């Protein structure tokens, strides 16, 4: 995150995440086991077009801490295969109390998303390995654009495979392609239930 609260990241879908994870370790990467685990996100809407305006108010609970985050996609901000957004976030001690505050402000839970996260520190950068219900596994690398490009090359990834869309839009595309309602919770439990009922 830079001083202007700009999130610059590249997201690449992985066919073999384990091989890439081991490659990152072989370059001297350090596993951040204390930052590994299931993240549970609740995203809120005010019923007045907030979410549809590419804005996100998100409360995340995870074993390693809870985060309240605001994101906003700036017009014309996407750069090639990078996703660029304004991001402001802070740690929250009591997630339940924060949820009550948000709802008192007339925002209501709108979308639920889970992902399992593993992280590696390599050359002062954090590589995040994400496993998401329905849509698969990805790596996210965030930082200065030039540094991210160098890391992508180091890991022998194709920068042209970078996805400048968020997980919500990818999931909505999946729902449309598989005749699922877009309001389907993007959780591992929902994925398992739907698979059993096919």
**SSE order:** EHEEEEEHEEEHHH
Strand order of the largest sheet: 1-6-5-4-3-7-8-9
Could you please say which CATH topology applies here? Hypothetical Protein Pfu-838710-001
User: How much of the polypeptide forms β-strand, as a percent range?
Assistant: 35-45%
Please count the beta strands (DSSP E, at least 2 residues each).
9
Low-confidence stretches: none
The name of the CATH superfamily reads Hypothetical Protein Pfu-838710-001
Q: What is the count of distinct domains?
A: 1
Rg calculated over all Cα atoms: 17 Å
Could you walk me through the main structural features you see in this protein, from its secondary elements to its overall organization?
17% of the residues are buried. With 198 residues, this protein is of the alpha+beta class. It has helices at 17-26, 95-104, 145-154, 167-177, 188-196, and strands spanning 6-13, 30-31, 37-45, 55-61, 66-73, 82-92, 108-122, 125-132, 136-142. The model has no long low-confidence stretch (mean pLDDT 92). Helix content is 25%, strand content 38%. The chain has a single domain (6-196), classed as Hypothetical Protein Pfu-838710-001. An eight-stranded antiparallel barrel has the order 1-6-5-4-3-7-8-9.
Tell me the layout of helices and strands.
Elements: E1 6-13, H1 17-26, E2 30-31, E3 37-45, E4 55-61, E5 66-73, E6 82-92, H2 95-104, E7 108-122, E8 125-132, E9 136-142, H3 145-154, H4 167-177, H5 188-196
Antiparallel strand pairs: 1-6, 1-9, 2-7, 3-4, 3-7, 4-5, 5-6, 7-8, 8-9
């Amino acid at each position: 995150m830079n001083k202007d609260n700009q999130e610059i990241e590249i997201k690449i879908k992985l066919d073999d995440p384990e091989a890439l994870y081991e490659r990152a370790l072989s370059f001297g990467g350090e596993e951040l086991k204390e930052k590994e685990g299931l993240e549970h996100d609740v995203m809120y809407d005010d019923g007045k077009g907030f979410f549809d305006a590419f804005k996100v108010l998100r409360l995340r609970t995870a074993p390693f801490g809870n985060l309240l985050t605001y994101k906003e996609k700036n017009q014309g901000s996407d750069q090639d295969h990078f996703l660029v957004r304004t991001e402001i976030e802070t740690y929250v001690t009591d997630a339940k109390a924060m949820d009550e505050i948000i709802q008192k402000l007339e925002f209501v839970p709108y979308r639920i998303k889970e992902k399992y996260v593993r992280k590696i520190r390599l050359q002062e950068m954090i590589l995040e390995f994400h496993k998401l219900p329905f849509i698969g596994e990805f790596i996210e690398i965030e930082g200065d654009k030039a540094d991210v490009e160098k890391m992508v090359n180091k890991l022998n990834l194709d920068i042209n495979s970078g996805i400048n869309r968020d997980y919500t839009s990818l999931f909505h595309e999946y729902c449309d392609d598989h005749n699922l309602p877009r309001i389907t919770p993007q959780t591992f439990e929902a994925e398992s239930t739907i698979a059993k009922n096919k």
